[in-house]
Amino acid sequence: xxxxxxxxxxxxxxxxxxxxxxxxxxxxxxDPFYEVTVDHLxxxxxxxxGLSLRDRRLLLIGAITAQGNSEIAEIQVGAAxxxxxxxxxxxxxxxxxxxxxxxxxxxxxxDGVIRKTLAKKQQK
Length: 124
Hints:
Elements: H1 6-21, H2 32-45, H3 53-66, H4 70-82, H5 88-102, H6 104-123
Helix pairs in contact: 1-2, 3-4, 4-6, 5-6
């Protein structure tokens, strides 16, 4: 944590979360897990210098794919599209690339998430 006042840290975290996900999120005061997520993960870690938001998103998509967490992958793929960080072709290439490192079955889950997310986007 930084030496900021909690409200400054919270506001910085909420601002970064909104930037990462592409929509505003509420401040859920009193929820310890949410508070640590906002105050540490987003206020501090996502705001560190050295990597762009896109860089962090690519790393996160790789990590959650390796874990087989398709629910979180869907959130991240949607956010990457909303924010213009990755396009359809790049997302498809990610699943092909990761298949060689995390295994075909695991990357197939990501490919399904990408297809589902792109289809939803086309329907809008």
